Amino acid sequence: MLKILSGWFLMVGAALPVHAEWVQRISDGIMGTRITVELWSEDKKSADEAIEAVLQEMRHVDESMSTYKPTSEVSAVNAGAAIAPMHISKELFDLLTSAREYSILTEGAFDITYASVGYLYDFRKHIRPDEKQIAKALPAVNYRHVILDANKQTVFFSTKGVRIDLGGIAKGYSVDQGIAVLKARGFTRAYVSAGGDSRIIGDRFGKPWMVGIRDPRQGEGSVITKIPLTDAAMSTSGDYERYFDEGGVRYHHIIDPRTGHSASKVRSATVIAPLAIRTDGLSKTAFVLGPEKAMEIYNRISDIDAIIVKLDGSVIYSRGLEPAKLR
Ligand code: ADP
Ligand code: MG
């Protein structure tokens, strides 16, 4: 018996590389959010180098896409695209093309020109526009004002006053970029997240990764449920992320493009799909359109699933996640 056992151990020992381990790094301060990278690696040095490359890619996305940085490409577009068509990088052009696709899929609930009004809010300083300011800025909110020419790789704003902000897809996109960096280096089991946007490759040796959905009315550590995921992305949008309360009303960072006000029809919405840009682009819809209409749209899109926490705290699931009904 002893002999057989030790032989078995030897076999297992030979199959697993000696120093393989899970390596995790949590980094604050890129895109104003927390970045987590976790991966299975056979040596610590290549793990550390890969994680650094992921963070570098995220810093690049931040530098190019942030409207907080006057030197970013998006800030340049906001300053110049209403004057004449502007030639832009392939990366930004592709992101604007994706943004347009999400606007169409969500019937205009996702709209990067929300920023034409959105820039008047400062949630940290509890600043919000008054009705007059909103009425003046609102006509510039419409994704159709963003004219893309694929042949010339240019963007043009057809109306004055248009501003864009990619805050609704940039984190998801950067997570996909981070995963691409890891895949190119040969990693097959990894987790990358930027705030509420995460994506996973592989599993945890026969077991899925368990990713929690935060309870919108409890502290950061408490979750309403955990979702088992393998090779998938998940984004959660919540009204607890960037907000202030005033006179019993919660003003927070998702804006209804039709009204210019905070969109407050749900407490949180989680979307699961193959890519994080997609989950990020679709998770805001429920805030704008409400749980029923959003779920109708989510159920129509074949490669996604969704979990919505309604205003009364009850939870609804897309068709793919509903428990099997007994006949
Ligand atoms: P996080 O920024 O934490 O990832 P979300 O994924 O919920 O949170 O995205 C919220 C961000 O989306 C806002 O901070 C803003 O930049 C952007 N945004 C707000 N309203 C809209 C909208 N209607 N369409 C597209 N983007 C929006
Ligand atoms: Mg997001």
Report what the structure shows:
- The chain has 327 residues and is α+β, with helices and mostly antiparallel strands.
- The chain is built from 10 helices and 15 strands.
- It has a domain at 67-166: ApbE-like superfamily (T-fold, Orthogonal Bundle), CATH 1.10.3980.
- The strands form 4 sheets. The protein has an 8-stranded antiparallel β-sheet. Strands 3-5-4 form a 3-stranded antiparallel β-sheet, with helices on one face.
- A hairpin with a 4-residue loop joins β4 and β5.
- Residues 1-14 have low confidence and may be disordered.
- Adenosine-5'-diphosphate (ADP) binds at residues 110-112, 114, 165, 167-168, 171, 195-197, 235, 237, 241, 253-255, 257, 280, 283-284, 288.
